[in-house]
Write a structure and sequence with these properties.
alpha/beta; Growth Hormone, Chain: A; 2 domains; nine-stranded mixed β-sheet; four-stranded antiparallel β-sheet; 17 helices; about 45% helix; disordered C terminus
């Protein structure tokens, strides 16, 4: 054991450690900043990892070429430059994302320019620190110096990844985390100049610190036409926003509309697709015998609240994100009771751990650009089937196009569900020829319902909701020969969804004279349709 003084970190050691913390912290944070515009698919994370590694490598290379001129003061300027760019990211990230998204690229590459613009420069600057620190190291020999720097940088990266993931993101907003990283960089830069306080670095440190405060205080510059932001937070899983537009309150998850409630008439279905959740009540033998219903995915809890209100049933909800449930209670009038219970748990794990049988299971955990892959696979569908009573029904809310470009994920999901269930049906929720909510219903027993059968049951059953228009949206079974069965070993959901990412997403709203499609979140290349179109000859689904 050496003397304690032998383990005292030098200034270059501190710089390397901080660069590791901030580079990996920014990489984790990049996912939260990019996701609302581009989703968090494998392509988005591939872009983030690629840009960060490329920028760091370029910084290492250039830093190595200039290492002979390395000094603590030069490292101080690099850290201040990085902090200054972080201030730009805090203030202008939304506008920079919109500008980058205007570049016409195929959907899978669309996030690359945005990641490069936002995070390429600061990561490049941080790449200089390691070779500079190795040059300034007091270790004997190149091997020992480089190994020492690699170890410190990696430890810093571990701390940055762990702290950002498990502490900062759940506790703070994006702006606050960026501000914290900026202050850490400024503080380290200032410390590198001590004990001799040089006027220029000191003044620059103060200026950058003020710039960070101003950027965070003003908030991101953006033009949001969705309405008034009632509540916004970063959860451990996603960005969550509650936005009021007139009398309609909407829950946005990672920038995508998820649930909505009419503040004047909370029982009204704002989105048409939530009415389709009642289709299983036409497929069971006797709706009066339905006792237990499970929703996988809560959102604004529109479906669970509606089932509890309309039927004499017990409703369980498996919602992974506790902040979503808390938000539903505070802003969407959710009240748990002896008949409605929210479980903070992943839907697949919930089913694996329960012995309870259900009459209806509603799978409502998908988003347009983000799908939990483990809930798409045939093994999960078989698990759900095993937890249904003999005449039980599964209904999956899938977001894709019903045919043509953008339909691959829907057709693969239909094929997978059909593999696990005796009979499978699908219903479109819009007449637009675009990405939309498609409801796939599957029965445990062999049923072979025709559209006429369901129309008759709708007329005969008093469900408290007329499903005539929903039954009219009955679709023939799709062609699934060219899409894979989704399994634990092979579930290429990202590839199947690639053609939907750049398409406009239509959510029909009740009471609309004409529903307009939600614009695509990103620009798309020539292989994708730029605009949704109504299907010729198919009338709009009535409210």
């Amino acid at each position: 054991m050496g003397k304690p003084a032998a383990f005292r970190p030098t200034k270059p050691d501190v710089a390397v450690f901080v660069s590791g913390v901030t580079s990996m912290g920014l990489e984790i944070l990049a996912g939260r900043i990019i996701a609302p515009q581009f989703g968090s698919s494998i392509y988005t994370w591939g872009s983030i990892i690629t840009v960060f590694l490329a920028a760091l490598s370029l910084g290492y290379w250039q830093g190595g070429k200039k290492a002979a001129t390395a000094s603590n003061r030069r490292m101080s300027w690099l850290l201040l430059g990085t902090a200054g760019y972080v201030a730009i990211v805090i203030y202008a990230s939304d506008q920079l994302l919109l500008s980058a998204s205007a570049i016409p690229l195929p959907a899978r590459y669309a996030s690359l320019p945005a990641v490069l613009l936002l995070f390429g420069p600061p990561t490049y600057l941080l790449g200089f620190i390691s070779p500079y620190a190795a040059e300034l190291s007091q270790k004997d020999g190149t091997g020992e110096a480089s190994g020492h720097v690699y170890a410190l940088g990696t430890i810093g990266s571990i701390v940055g990844a762990g702290a950002t993931t498990y502490v900062l993101v759940p506790a703070l907003g994006i702006d606050a985390i960026g501000l914290l990283f900026g202050f850490i960089l400024v503080g380290t830069a200032f410390a590198l100049t001590l004990p001799r306080l040089s006027p220029k670095p000191a003044s620059a440190s103060v200026a950058i610190a003020l710039l960070l405060v101003v950027a965070a205080g003003l908030g991101p510059v953006a033009f949001d036409h969705r309405g008034d932001v009632v509540y916004q937070t970063q959860t451990a899983y996603q960005e969550l926003e509650v936005i009021d537009d007139g009398d309609v309150r909407t829950l946005y998850l990672d920038g995508a509309r998820h649930s909505a409630m009419d503040l004047e008439d909370p029982d009204r279905h704002v989105f048409e697709y939530t009415r389709y959740f009642h289709l299983p009540m036409l497929m069971v033998d006797d709706p009066d015998e339905v006792e237990n219903v499970l929703f996988i995915g809560g959102g604004g809890y529109t479906g669970p609240k509606d089932f509890e209100r309309k039927y004499d049933v017990d409703v369980d909800v498996a919602e992974l994100d506790p902040e979503v449930t808390r938000t539903a209670k505070e802003y969407f009038r959710l009240e748990e009771s002896e008949n409605l219970t929210a479980h903070t748990e992943d839907g697949r794990i919930f089913l694996q751990e329960t012995d309870k049988k259900y009459d209806v299971i509603v799978l409502d955990a998908y988003q347009k650009d983000q799908v939990p892959i483990h809930l798409t696979q045939v093994e999960f569908m078989e698990l759900a089937e095993s937890h249904l009573d003999e005449d039980g029904v599964l209904l999956a809310n899938v977001i894709a196009a019903p045919s043509g470009s953008g339909s691959a994920f829907y057709r693969a999901q239909y094929k997978t569900i059909d593999e696990a269930f005796a009979s499978t049906y699908s219903f479109r929720t819009s007449s637009w020829d675009s990405v939309q909510n498609i409801e796939i219903a599957a029965t445990k027993a062999e049923t072979n319902f025709t559209e006429a059968d369901l129309e008759t049951r709708n007329d005969q059953r008093d469900l408290g909701i007329d499903l005539r228009s929903e039954v009219d949206a009955y679709m023939d079974a799709p062609n699934t020969d060219d899409v894979p069965l989704l399994t634990e070993e092979h579930a290429p959901v990202g590839d199947l969804q690639a053609s939907t990412v750049g398409q406009e997403y239509v959510i029909e709203q009740t009471g609309d004279d004409e529903t307009q499609p939600e614009p695509a979140s990103i620009a798309v290349g020539p292989e994708l349709p730029a605009h949704a179109r109504p299907i010729p000859g198919l009338e709009s689904i009535p409210s």
